[in-house]
Design a protein that fits this description.
Blueprint lengths: L5 H4 L10 E6 L5 H15 L5 E4 L8 H14 L4 E6 L5 H14 L3 E5 L19 H14 L10 E6 L10 H14 L3 E4 L5 H14 L5 E2 L1 E2 L5 H11 L5 H9 L3 H21 L4 E5 L5 H10 L12 H12 L1
Helix pairs in contact: 4-5, 5-6, 6-7, 7-10, 9-10, 10-11
Length: 325
């Protein structure tokens, strides 16, 4: 009989992985918004997140500002960016060029999304355009494979979207899970959920996904639900009815401070319920505002792994040049 391997002989690890923490940002629309965003970035950087995601407009409408923000995050901060990328309206060749550009800038995480269908666009997609997120994932892996020698120090991590409640265009929640499984089979590494308003929605999604064979981490995405207008807008955008009790409570709030207190408490409850259900991390949609996100994080009291302070990449590069000189 063969002797046991080292893995078989080793005692199982009792140390669980720390809870992952990430934030979502979107590129600024003007100089005033840019100044506010960078104040938020510095505040969020102090919490030592595992990564920050950067959104990408429909059909790449803000591609230049998104790439500029990604580049600045890589060169001026210690943050690791996750670049959103949508495929609707773009051909495989166009997307391959964008993926190569992102990798050339140093991006090593991509959130592969189908993107919203244009409301006033053509009925038929452009010839050669990609239609599904799973196609985009396969394209990213092909581009990655061609660059294997360049990526020896860091392969590409691909994230995808998951839906705790039924996608507006989906025939059923079961179909949503089938789509998530297809994304996994195409090469996705993890999923981040769309916003949800009811605690059981995340848990039910995870149960359905695991039964279908999904094994990648499913990270709950939560947004500070601090104003009635924001909650109503989110409900309209996602097609998910918000909690009536939350709408009523926000509607009765006497001022902005009370509305914020109510919204932060509701967001914390959602996040805690997801963590109690085994969520491997929390992804906070910030709306480029740090105060409410940090308040949610403070009340969750997540244990963050201790890491030595890391100098921004530009500073580290300059130091390296001095040493070599």
């Amino acid at each position: 009989m063969s002797p046991p391997s080292l893995l078989q002989a080793s005692a199982p690890s009792t140390q669980s992985a720390p809870i992952a923490l990430s934030y979502e940002l979107f590129p600024p629309k003007n100089q005033a918004a840019e100044a506010s965003l960078w104040n938020t970035i510095r505040e969020l950087e102090s919490t030592n997140p595992d990564y920050v995601s950067v959104t990408y407009g429909a059909n790449g409408s803000n591609r230049d500002t998104a790439v500029e923000l990604l580049n600045r995050l890589l060169t001026e901060t210690s943050l690791l960016p996750l670049a959103h990328l949508t495929c609707v309206g773009n051909t495989a060749d166009e997307l391959a060029e964008i993926i190569s550009e992102l990798l050339d800038h140093g991006v090593r995480g991509i959130l592969a999304l189908r993107g919203d269908l244009p409301k006033d666009g053509p009925a038929q997609p452009r010839p050669g355009s990609l239609i599904f997120a799973s196609d985009l994932i396969q394209l990213i892996r092909r581009v990655e494979q061609r660059r294997s020698a360049l990526l020896c120090a860091g392969k590409v991590a691909i994230g995808v979207a998951a839906y705790p409640s039924q996608h507006p265009e989906s025939p059923s929640v079961e179909h949503d899970v089938e789509v998530l499984l297809a994304k996994q089979n195409s090469g996705a590494d993890f999923a981040i959920t769309q916003v949800f308003f009811h605690a059981d929605q995340y848990k039910d999604l995870v149960v359905r996904a695991q039964r279908a064979g999904v094994t990648i981490p499913i990270i709950p995405g939560v947004m500070p639900l601090t104003t009635l207008r924001r909650v109503q807008r989110l409900g309209d955008m996602t097609g998910v009815p918000p909690s009536t009790s939350l709408l009523d409570a926000l509607g009765r709030a006497d001022d902005a401070a009370e509305s914020r207190r109510i919204g932060v408490a509701a967001t914390v409850d959602l996040a805690r319920a997801a963590l109690d259900a085994g969520a491997p991390g929390i992804h906070l949609y910030t709306f480029n505002e740090h105060a409410a996100a940090l308040e949610v994080l403070d009340k969750l009291q997540l244990l963050r792994p201790g890491r030595p302070p890391v100098a921004p990449r530009a500073a580290r590069t300059d130091s390296a040049r001095l040493v070599r000189a």
